[in-house]
Amino acid sequence: MTLAHARWKSCAPDKALTVQVSIDGRKVTAIAGIRVAALLLQNTSAETRHNHDGTPRAPYCMMGVCHECLALIDGKTTERTCLIPVYDGMQITRCSGPFQLPNVR
Fold first, then answer.
1. Disulfide engineering: 47 pairs with which of 14, 16, 56, 61, CB 3.0-4.6 Å?
2. What is the pLDDT of residue 55?
3. Are 90 and 73 in contact (CB under 8 A)?
């Protein structure tokens, strides 16, 4: 696996189980079970989303408290990516500004 940032070196064993996921439509190989926020930090620029005014945001607490790591997972409403482990076939879409909420009726 090639890491975008050298500081995010994996400590997983060399023979760790890997899965294929998609980040913004780009196929990426990931270690099975790694949290989505960590995968995004490994394979993209630091920001995981942008506010409505274009301000970049990135994971901060990595434990689900700050909500800075929000992204769309498999087309569902925004999820805290630091809490969700990756799985094969996962579709991850980083958020950019406001988006339409789904009809929940």
1. 56
2. 82
3. yes
Give residue-wise pLDDT tens across range 20-44: 999 999 999 999 989 999 998 888 7
Of residues 92 and 99, more confidently modeled = 92
Q: How does DSSP classify residue 8?
A: -
Contact residues for 26 (Cβ-Cβ < 8 A; gap 6+): none
* Spatial contact of 95 and 49, defined as CB atoms under 8 Å apart: yes
Cβ atoms 52, 96 nearer than 8 A: no
H or E element at residue 40: helix 36-43
